[in-house]
Write a structure and sequence with these properties.
Layout (H helix, E strand, L loop, with lengths): L41 E2 L1 E6 L4 H6 L5 E5 L2 E6 L2 E6 L2 E3 L5 H8 L1 H9 L3 E8 L5 H6 L2 H4 L11 H16 L3 E11 L2 E4 L8 E2 L1 E4 L3 E4 L4 E4 L2 H14 L2 E4 L2 E5 L2 E10 L7 E10 L6 H4 L4 H23 L15 H11 L3 E8 L6 H14 L3 E2 L5 E2 L1 H26 L17 E7 L1 H8 L1 H7 L10 E4 L37 E7 L20 H4 L13 H8 L5 H4 L44 E2 L4 E4 L2 E9 L2 E6 L2 E9 L6 E7 L9
Helix pairs in contact: 3-6, 9-10
Bound molecules: adenosine-5'-triphosphate.
Adenosine-5'-triphosphate binds next to helix 4 and strand 15.
């Protein structure tokens, strides 16, 4: 049956299904299959899922007002509304999770991601309409018992499909995942341990909008990625309200980074598969929220409004585009590429069939229809062999520097060292792990355990890494032994006051090339505190800026060489730690950072502001070593750089001009 035009509303929605590159969808009779369309305009594919009436709705006697007509059409009939909408596919209340996976084009999206495209699937709809259920399945069951395989959502099925495809194609893929939420307009890393802290959202010419300093975790098998998904989801903000007992209070974005690493595959493909579980739109009156809940609802509705606005503008023909206000919310910034850029996007609109939700349902249907007119120009990301090698070399270089500084920070002479050898990796340096560094370790035991294998079945592995780093060179955290007589905390100032409890130590290998020769006559260990070095903590997990650091440092006028007692604790290869447990210094003191430059805005001429802020220098992540006025000295992938801040007069964001730091020759390795 052909759907009729919508009566009394917008004209009949364009029923032509959104198309994905390489003709993934089954063409209707007479419709020509689209061939590969890389670089050609491609419509967003929009599918609709209608959930069953819930027990509460049935008990209340709610009427079913949404009816699937088949062939991608859905009819809404209520007293004053009678409208038909068309989508690429419609899944009614009886549709299984598997049917949604197979019929939505998700499998093809996974294949495109392996081929190097940036693919996104996002679920949107009113609160309680089944977005999370569609993407992840009934997660709440899994806290006590694993969900039945038949109920697994698009995410788990896509992970399985990805790994299966990778195996069957014989492709050697490096896989990693990052997971974040946007809560009250703050971007938070769901995989990063410790209390949630806001991450900066930046823009660069090459990468577009991206989250700086986001953690990415390597995985190689289904158990590992499913375990990460569960842990991240448990950290996500949820609350109960009148319409949903487990309502998501944030937008969540899980991204799988797929990089083909087979040397023969050149140029190398780098695709992404991003799952976006949007928080549901809600009417505060209906959800009965107040206080924090209503504040969250306002923030959710504002960002969804911004998304709707962008979609409306993008739905116009390309020639008629004016300015697309992606910057109106963090959500639209992060979805910019998927909506109007070079990505391939699948949108799953979720609705309730209940008569009580009619107005929200109609709003979702209009929203979805409009989204079906949005086009992107999909482009596969391919990296040439030379570029790949260069990037890898830079990453190795940066990681070596980071490794060096981390090991030195771990070498705290104030606590006794109990060493555990890592077999087969001589020579060794004594590293202790205590004091401030253990605090976050303490908070993050569950995540650390999972990321470093104990929760993962034998033969499987996950690994923490920063985006764009090679997995082979990632330093691993020492495993934390369980603290005797206490919980699993290895020692932190809060719950483990005794010095012995606060010490976890391990001997880690130091590559000979990283051990600088000791200067003549130098001796002794200088007390080294993490906050003084301004370098990342004992692990990548500690790289978030510490809020107090900026304040502490404002009044400082000590010379930077005093404040950066960097490469001086590592023992020489032939010497090792002295019998008294003291470590012979083996490198000249960290060179003084450049003299003060007067920068705009801060008025802190003559003072150095130490911090562990991270930046992006030339598209790669870096660590700030010091701030001097408006100049930041950063440890980048290609050495030490001075980074001069400028504030964009239009958008107010900061970017910088780079120049090699004057002292960079001192640290080349
Ligand atoms: N297709 C379905 N079959 C069976 N139950 C479903 C289906 N879709 C949703 N549900 C149930 O409806 C309830 C709400 O679903 P869910 O939490 O996925 O909604 P949501 O859209 O993610 O809500 P919010 O935006 O508030 O997070 C859950 O109890 C879920 O199990």
């Amino acid at each position: 049956m052909e759907p009729e035009g919508e009566r009394g509303g917008e004209p009949q929605t364009d029923r032509r299904p959104g198309t994905l590159p390489r003709g993934q969808e089954r063409p209707s009779p007479g419709e020509e299959r689209e061939g590969p369309v890389e670089g050609r305009e491609t419509r967003l594919r929009v599918v609709l899922r209608v959930r069953p009436l819930t027990c509460t709705e049935t008990r209340r006697g709610d009427r079913r007002v949404v009816h699937s007509l088949g062939d991608g059409a859905v009819h809404v009939s209520a007293a004053r509304h009678d409208a038909t909408f068309g989508f690429s596919a419609v899944f009614d209340a009886s549709a299984s999770q598997e049917a949604v996976f197979e019929g939505s084009g998700m499998r093809q999206l996974v294949e495109l991601a392996i081929d190097g495209f940036s693919c996104t699937v996002f679920a949107f709809g009113q609160t309680g309409s089944g977005k999370t259920y569609t993407l992840m399945g009934p997660l709440t069951q899994s806290e006590t018992q694993p969900a039945s395989p038949a109920l697994l959502g698009l995410m788990q099925r896509s992970f399985a499909c990805l790994l299966e495809q990778s195996r069957s194609r014989g492709s050697d893929l490096a896989l990693s995942a990052s997971y974040l939420e946007i809560y009250n307009e703050q971007v938070r890393d769901l995989l990063s341990p410790g209390p949630p802290c806001a991450l900066p959202l930046r823009w660069s010419k090459t990468r577009g909008f991206y989250v700086e300093n986001q953690l990415s975790v390597d995985f190689e098998n289904l158990e590992a990625i499913v375990s990460l998904l569960l842990q991240g989801s448990q950290r996500r903000r949820t609350s109960a309200h009148a319409l949903n007992r487990h309502s998501s209070r944030s937008h969540a974005l899980l991204t799988i980074h797929i990089r083909s690493r087979a040397p023969s595959t050149c140029p190398s493909k780098q695709g992404t598969l991003c799952f976006v579980d949007l928080a549901g739109s809600e009417r505060v009156k209906e959800t009965g929220s107040s206080g924090e809940l209503s504040m969250e609802a306002n923030s959710i509705n504002r960002s969804l409004l911004a998304l709707g606005h962008c979609i409306s503008l993008l739905a116009k023909p390309r020639g008629k585009w004016t300015h697309i206000p992606y910057r109106d919310s963090k959500l639209t910034r992060l979805l910019a590429r998927s909506l109007g850029g070079s990505g391939v996007t699948l949108m799953v609109a979720c609705i309730s069939p209940s008569s009580r939700c009619l107005s929200e349902t109609l709003s979702t249907l209009h929203y979805a229809s409009r989204a079906g007119r949005v086009t992107t120009r999909p482009l596969a990301n391919r990296v040439s062999r030379e570029k790949l090698l260069q990037t890898l070399e830079e990453e190795i270089h940066a990681l070596k520097l980071e490794n060096l500084s981390l090991r030195q920070q771990l070498c705290l002479p104030r606590v006794p060292v109990r060493s555990t050898e890592v077999p087969g990796n001589p020579p060794k340096a004594c590293l202790s792990w205590g004091g401030r560094a253990t605090r976050s370790s303490c908070d993050n035991q569950p995540l650390l355990r999972s990321a470093h294998a104990p929760q993962i079945p034998p033969g499987h592995s996950t690994r923490l890494r920063q985006p764009n780093t090679t997995s082979a060179s990632i330093p691993r955290l020492p495993k934390l032994p369980p603290a005797s007589g206490r919980s699993s905390c290895p020692g932190c100032p809060q719950c483990c006051p005794g010095p012995a409890d606060a010490t976890v130590s391990q001997v880690l290998p130091v590559p000979p090339m990283l051990q600088p020769a000791p200067p003549e006559g130098s001796a002794g260990v200088l007390p080294l505190r993490q906050e003084d070095t301004g370098l990342p903590g004992s692990h990548q997990l500690h790289r978030h800026p510490q809020p107090h650091q900026g304040k502490r440092s404002q009044g400082r006028s000590r010379s930077l060489s005093q404040q950066h007692p960097l490469p001086r604790e590592l023992p020489g290869p032939e010497r090792g730690p002295s019998p008294e447990g003291r470590v012979i210094p083996s490198a000249p003191p960290w060179p003084g950072l450049p003299e003060t430059r007067v920068g705009r805005g801060t008025g802190l001429a003559g003072r150095a502001d130490l911090s562990s802020h991270s930046r992006t220098v030339d598209g790669a992540s870096s660590r700030d070593l010091a701030r001097t006025g408006g100049t930041t000295t950063a440890l980048g992938d290609t050495g030490i750089w001075d980074y001069k801040d400028h504030t964009d007069p239009l958008y107010g964001h900061t970017h910088g001009a780079l120049q090699p730091a004057r002292h960079s020759q001192f640290i080349s390795v």
